[in-house]
Amino acid sequence: MKIEIIIVHLSCIQEVKIMGIEFSERQMKILYFLIENEHTTYKELSEQLYVSTKTISKDILILKEIIQKMPDVQMLVQPKKGVSLIGKKETLRNLLSSHKINIADSPEDRLTYVFAKLLNTNDSLKIQNLADELYVSRSTVESTMKDVRKRLNKHGMSLVSDRNGVRIKADEKSKRRLMSEVVNYYWGGFTASNSKTDLLDLNINFIGEANNFLNKDILKKVAELLNRYMNKTQLKFTDYEFQTLAIHLAIAIERIETSNFLSRSNNSEEEISENTLILIKMIEKAFSIIVPIDEQAYVDIHITSIEKNAMNHDLDQTKLSYLDMGVELQELVRIKLNEFYPDEELINNLVLHLNAAVKRLKLGVNIYNPYTDKIKYSFKRSFMISVDLLEEIEERFCIHFNEDEIAYVTLHIQSLLDRYKPDKTKVILVCSSGYGTSKLLEQRINNGFADMVEIEDVLSINELQDRKVTDELVISTIPIENTNFPVIVVSPLMLGADVRKVKQYLQLNEQTEDAFLNLLDKRFCFFTHQIKDNQVNVLNIITKKLVKENYAKEGILEGAIKREKLSSTAMNDFAMPHIEVDFIKKPVICVYVNPEGIDWDGALVHSVFFFALNEKVKPELNKIYETFNEIASNHELLANLKTSSSFEKLVYILKEGL
């Protein structure tokens, strides 16, 4: 088996020329995505690259024509099915991998290069020397240094300047955390291909500056060692656990070899697990080093977390009490998620995950999540629910969950919501043709509309007169007039025309329940051209109006700002702040539009949707978020929103786009 680790970050790809053919940045991203995935669709690509399906279609036509000239690989485009590569994808992969991208052309790559230089030395670096190495001006490096300072400040680190140059002021733990973050940034995953030998052969490619942080030969050796370790201990790793541990170990080994050690932590005296000791012995033998007890403690955090993941743990709910914080976390999860009716599957999986996460975070060890942005964008409601839950856990255990951690919890919440069946239309059948025909009608409706309707009762016309009908749909084999409830008349045989009649009603009924648009209110829609607008100003305007109109309680502004600090709600060109239901008296969705742009904690947005929701709209929440997801994924609609200057135009644009 041959496994190649491709470390690619698509944002670093620029317009390039391969085989004399010029590829745009977007076309290069499409090719990489197709290589890594068996099959995709125009819609999926448009969501990945934030462009319309029409734009994707044009790119695919160009790429198909180019790839047709290659002997070993072809692009298959099937209407309504999607796009796939057939043949030897390695031919295309090797062609792309062999192309050298100028690492100093991109501001992000210059930033990474400078980080690597600063983190790998304890000495000061001169600005002019960095400029000479990068073949750029001194002013360009000074501009890069501003970004370095911002990034370091977010990690609790600082950049110190003296007569000798600049250097990072930080402890070893902080330096390693930043190194790990940068290497993860360039991680592209694993690909496997057959080999003539039984040995595991690992090839590693870095695209970008990750190789300045990490010796790829050490990472290759660590990955091979971890595969042997997995076979020896029979532990099962997720891809992300393998990735996180491999990078942690590779960085640790390099730092130990250069006598840069982690300082003693309070947890260093805890007993190291047997599986961790096995791994430590393998590392010491393979790299001829001694791993100090403090380093062992950090490795132990990873291993004990892996030991307790769902693949290695018996999900017996009664055993949760044996976890370090199992009882406390179980109680907290049940209380915080009570309104979503958490099932045992969620409780078991989530408590196992959180127990390991709390232990990790107490020692400052985060897990990287390559799909954070996609999860946050695709599962907005679940992400919000996760933020609510983790805010309570943060306060209880004095830890901090970053967005990568929140995204993993979001997947558990989304799985719970997916297990709920959508609301069904309640139906009463009225049939006076006898038992046989009424059973046939019931069966045919169940067969045709099982996911859409729930038959509550089968009645005769006389029985219907004694029955109080509220929100049910009546499907009858005989005409019923002068009623205050909906009636559809069908044949007892439920023929094609009858099926179409019921289907039309159900779809129309769904469309008329426009839960999202009904929550818009002219009083809470704001339009401005203010220059240098920002997050705090927008939240202040919206929340002040909500309190004034008696839609919200005092303290809502502070609550909204606190939530944004936990995780920014800026996504692409919009932001969607929200607040706990306890602050809201009446539900409403506020909209704020500024074509000049709004600085939303460093991100530039033009539209803000403030979700001021409470228990009153709980039955409609799925519909509300479904509609908003349509808005958020429609980039043309979002662009048009910037032109709206009145409530009427805003509603018109939304209705046209939906």
From TrEMBL:
Keyword Iron-sulfur: no
BP GO terms, sorted: phosphoenolpyruvate-dependent sugar phosphotransferase system; regulation of DNA-templated transcription
Limits of the PTS EIIB type-2 domain: 425-514
PROSITE patterns: PRD_2 (PS51372), PTS_EIIA_TYPE_2 (PS51094), PTS_EIIB_TYPE_2 (PS51099)
InterPro entries on file: BglG_antiterminators, HTH_11, Mga_HTH, PRD, PRD_sf, PTrfase/Anion_transptr, PTS_EIIA_type-2_dom, PTS_EIIB-like_sf
Sorted UniProt keywords: Activator, Repeat, Transcription, Transcription regulation, Transferase
Domain PTS EIIA type-2: start-end pairs: 518-657
The name this protein goes by in its record: PRD domain protein
